Amino acid sequence: MNKLAVIGAGYVGLVTGICLASCGHEVTCMDIDECKIDQLKAGRLPLFEPGLQELHDTNTATGRLSFTTNPEKAVQHAEGVFIAVGTPPRKDGGADLSYIHNAIQSIAPFLQKDSVIIMKSTVPVGTHADVKKLLDRTAGHPVRLVSNPEFLREGSAVNDFFYSDRIVIGSNDPSPASFVEQLYHSIPSPVIHTDPQTAEMIKYSSNAFLAAKISFINEMAALCEAEGADISMVAAGMGMDKRIGEHFLKAGIGYGGSCFPKDTTALLYSAAQQNITVPLLSSIHEVNRRQPRVFIKKVLDRFGSIEGKKAAVLGLTFKPNTDDLRRSPSREIINLLVEEGAMVTGYDPVVSVSGKRVWQIPLAQTMEEALTGADLAVICTEWKEIIDFPLHCYPLYMKEANIFDGRNCYPVSQARGLPLFYSSVGRPVYKGI
Ligand code: UGA
User: Fold this and answer.
1) In what order do the strands lie in the sheet with 65-68?
2) What is the pTM of this model?
């Protein structure tokens, strides 16, 4: 058991802190947001992540997990301090490191001499050296810093923590590196030791490669539509080749969230800084940027004009099993529909329930309510509730059942014989009306 602190109680920080407490460590999570910390102390998570609330409850009950806004309290006894604050994109595409700098400055004066600082936040390659200088200067003594990027997916972050494909530890010094390795001793994942800049690069390259798979399959989907092929079967056939792999080949309206869009642009920015041309990386980003517009063109091709038409947008979050709306492609879809004059109502199994009003559109409380009287439905997120909603029920509620499925939630064969129009991504269109 080790005494640990986690600075930043966002997705990454909370999942890391709570899961490390579950591994038996004594963890203090710190955040500057008093509301968030009050909420956590009162036992409520400020975000929706399957399985996390239960682990939070168990670990606070045992006393292994606590929360504070006080940097001194958080780190004064900590042997290891994880930095897990955000690195949002700046206007020029580079990563904004101000939260990292503020976090370091607030904790450095209170650090134990032999504590290890562990960088979880996604930071541009080369950041390690700058952060180390800042740490040493503010602490007034040399501080041991290790890069330990995260590979958690929102919606399955708890599972990803305990069954990680790999644990990456980047350090030039074997002693703090082995300290970090033993923190994860109860997790049966392979560990790879590298220098810090390689660890930082593994994180960016992994996200860029996953984003590449998505943009690639979306481009193939456009070709499938032109040739009458079915992208789901193409992806299944490709994925059976172990060198390709079956994951991240789901065609759709593009990737969103707080990671892929930000990390691919940050990598593009770094490349520009280094005067290196990266045409592949630029294309991954460009294909994704176009994807919502390409999808809405199908709506316009069907209707000519959607001025005054009632549209139900189903699913608002950037993926299922999260309440995260950041950089969700559904936002661009809604903007385009509104721009074309449609009257849009949104529905999302988690966002609607929380009563939030998003992006200036009204939210329905149920899927049926959103569909009632609609001329068209656009599916933006493959929530289970949406997948489980039978296709034959759409005509029961809609004025005219024009369904545009941006996440391929239903097999096209299910539409056969039904009084509806069903258009998805990279698969044949079914015209039952
Ligand atoms: C991503 C990575 O998958 C994690 O490994 C990484 O740790 C994380 O970013 C991060 O850098 O913090 P996340 O953004 O939570 O995780 O979600 P993903 O499951 O990767 O999905 C990202 C987007 O890609 C979603 O909008 C999803 O709908 C889309 N996607 C994913 C597709 O369009 N097709 C696919 O086949 C897979």
Assistant:
1) 65-68, 26-30, 3-7, 80-83, 116-119, 144-147, 167-170, 191-194
2) 0.96
Q: How many H-runs (helices) and E-runs (strands) does the chain carry?
A: 16, 14
pLDDT tens for each residue of 103-117: 999 999 999 999 999
Nearest CA to ligand 1 atom 20: 153
Encoding tokens for residue 155?
């919606």
- In b/e form, how buried is each residue of 312-350, taking b as 16+ CB within 10 angstroms? bbbbbbbbbbbbbbbbbbbbbbbbbbbebebbbbbbbbb
Element (H, E) at 132: helix 127-139
Question: Does residue 224 have an active-site annotation?
Answer: no
Distances (CA, A) of 26 to 77, 108, 176, 405: 11, 20, 18, 46
Q: Which residues line ligand 1 (CB under 6 A)?
A: 122, 150-154, 207, 210, 214, 248-250, 252, 255-257, 259-260, 318-319
pLDDT at 354 over 80: no
Catalytic residue among 19, 29, 259, 380: 259
DSSP codes joined into one string, 214-271: HHHHHHHHHHHHHHT--HHHHHHHHHTSTTT-STT---SS---SSSHHHHHHHHHHHH
- The rounded Å distance from CA 64 to ligand 1 centre is 31
Listed residue (433, 423, 362) closest to 400, CA to CA: 433
How confident is residue 27, by pLDDT bands cut at 50, 70 and 90? very high
Inter-residue contact 371 to 312 (CB < 8 Å) = yes
